[in-house]
Amino acid sequence: MSKHKLLIVEIICCLLIVLFLYASFTKLLNPYALRHDMLNQPFPRWFSRQLIWAVPAVEIVLVILLVFEVTRKIALWGALVLLLLFTVYTALVLLHFFSYVPCGCGGVIRNLSWPQHLVFNLFFTGITAVAIVLRRKVQMH
Predict the structure, then answer these.
(1) Residues 4-19: pLDDT tens digits?
(2) Residues near 100 by Cβ (< 8 Å), separated by ≥ 6?
(3) Could you list the residue range(s) of the whole structural domain that residue 43 is in?
């Protein structure tokens, strides 16, 4: 049974690696769109400027940490925190918390509606939590 759990954790880590690689490179390969999108967020301008490079940098660091078993625990927790932040942000947009609807994400994800984006984020948040739980169970045995 623990082999199956490990396989599930590996698959989830691979999915997260693909997600974060795609997300970070989509941002970095089009810096003008990234800057425009980040500066259009409903945050103070100084904070939005920090996000321009911080978000893709964190995504790349998470990819590197997810690759190695020795750093996978911290990577999964970091991914969970980042995905929770994205999910809360998306939920706030849907609840009309902000005075305007900011532009969405880049790449293929840009084509999702905000409700679809929330489901997408919830899916990845959920599987990340599953990976954390399964990994812990395997290590306890």
Answers:
(1) 999 999 999 999 999 9
(2) 42
(3) 2-140
Extract the tokens encoding 9.
């954790």
Six-digit token string for 3: 């082999």
Integer Cα distance of 83 and 81 in angstroms = 6
pLDDT tens string 30-39:
988 889 888 9
Residue type present at position 19: L
Longest distance between any two alpha carbons in the chain, whole Å: 50
Q: C-alpha distances in angstroms, 40 versus 35, 43, 44, 46?
A: 8, 8, 10, 12
Crossing angle of the two packed helices 2-28 and 31-39, in degrees rounded to 10 = 90
Residue 109 is given by DSSP the state G
pLDDT at residue 22, rounded to an integer:
95
Taking only the tens place, the pLDDT of each residue in 99-136 is 887 766 666 677 888 999 999 999 999 999 999 999 99
Domain count for the chain: 1
Given a contact cutoff of 8 angstroms between Cβ atoms, the answer to whether 94 and 114 are in contact is yes
Q: What is the pLDDT of residue 104?
A: 63
